């Protein structure tokens, strides 16, 4: 079977373009959906809303969420503490 070359079909997604839905983000960053919703409600990471319900996250937001996961899992920081840390980092 012949292998298909895909290098000519690469897709570029701008870092700030909201393209990832919450269920995909939950898998990528290993944070439960309910926690992502709480982070949104607290203004920590607020995804763009598509329609009334669908949350879409950008690659930049995924980076922040990976850091949030690190703080929660490795350092034991709660959500309020995460909010303070991110506010200090600007």
Describe this structure in words.
The mean pLDDT is about 90. This protein is mostly helical and about 90 residues long. The radius of gyration is 16 Å and the shape is globular. It has a 3-stranded antiparallel beta sheet with strand order 1-3-2. The N and C termini lie far apart (about 50 Å). The chain has 4 helices and 3 strands, in the order βααββαα. A hairpin with a 3-residue loop joins strand 2 and strand 3. The chain has one domain: Multidrug-efflux Transporter Regulator, Chain: A, Domain 2, CATH 1.10.1660.
At a glance:
The protein has 90 residues and is mainly alpha-helical. The protein is 48% helix and 10% strand. The longest helix is centred in the C-terminal third of the chain and has 15 residues, at 59-73.
How many helix segments? 4
> What is the CATH class designation?
Mainly Alpha
Biggest sheet architecture = 3 strands, antiparallel
Low-confidence stretches: none
Specify the helix fraction band.
Answer: 40-55%
- Choose one word for the global shape: globular
Distance N terminus to C terminus? 52 Å
What is the second-level CATH architecture? Orthogonal Bundle
Q: How would you state the average pLDDT, rounded? A: 92
- In N-to-C order, the SSE pattern is EHHEEHH
Gyration radius, in Å = 16 Å
The overall number of domains is 1
Question: Which structural class matches the secondary elements?
Answer: mainly alpha
Strand content: 5-15%
Number of strands: 3
| Strands in their spatial order, largest beta sheet | 1-3-2
| CATH T-level fold name | Multidrug-efflux Transporter Regulator, Chain: A, Domain 2
Q: Please, what is the oligomeric state?
A: single chain
């Amino acid at each position: 079977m012949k292998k298909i070359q895909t290098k000519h079909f690469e897709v570029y997604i701008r870092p700030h373009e909201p393209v990832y839905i919450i269920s995909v983000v939950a898998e990528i960053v290993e944070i439960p959906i309910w926690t992502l919703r709480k982070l949104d409600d607290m203004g920590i990471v607020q995804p763009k809303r598509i329609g009334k319900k669908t949350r879409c996250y950008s690659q930049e937001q995924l980076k922040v969420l990976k850091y949030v996961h690190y703080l929660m899992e490795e350092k034991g920081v709660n959500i309020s503490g995460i909010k303070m840390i991110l506010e200090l980092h600007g």
